[in-house]
């Protein structure tokens, strides 16, 4: 996977050019091609691998939310962590995110799970692994994506100021452990999945804390309320 073969938002392309020209990305591209040639269904579609970066340019990042890998059911994933395409049932973790938003900000839960409204405001919805095989959770872990998304987080850490990192669960917290807390706000809570949300995700107040921090540093707060219809 080279810089020339990837269509990517320009600020990210400049920041990540070294990654695209590296051997591990070539290996990752070869792996993905082999999987597709073998008849395996890969999600999301190729044009959406870097959707999170395309919607949220580096110089506009306000908030980073980290996920692990894409949803592996047909029609779900579209390149943003926790988000699903319009018309798809809202996943349990996102249901709990909406519950916490309602408790924290008084925002009624959306009737859809399409989060591009957040991404377009500077919320980087980044999965650690950007592809998955249909029906096989975590099938593409350890193939190189983690190294690439580490570079994404490193770029935000070094090139941006006053960004809020919402780190939900131990996986996200370990992945972004190097973030400079003198330059950014790091918020930690258990993962919003039904297995752990009651252990401290509910009541964490991350959405109001994020906006308070952004405002105090002269940045526009995020409008967390999603449009009634996906847009």
TrEMBL record:
GO terms for cellular component: cytoplasm. GO terms for biological process: base-excision repair, AP site formation via deaminated base removal. Keywords: Cytoplasm, DNA damage, DNA repair, Glycosidase, Hydrolase. Gene3D superfamilies: Uracil-DNA glycosylase-like domain. GO terms for molecular function: uracil DNA N-glycosylase activity. InterPro entries: UDG_fam1, Ura-DNA_Glyclase_AS, Uracil-DNA_glycosylase-like, Uracil-DNA_glycosylase-like_sf. It catalyses: Hydrolyzes single-stranded DNA or mismatched double-stranded DNA and polynucleotides, releasing free uracil. Belongs to the uracil-DNA glycosylase (UDG) superfamily. UNG family. This is Uracil-DNA glycosylase. The lineage of its organism: Bacteria, Pseudomonadati, Pseudomonadota, Alphaproteobacteria, Hyphomicrobiales.
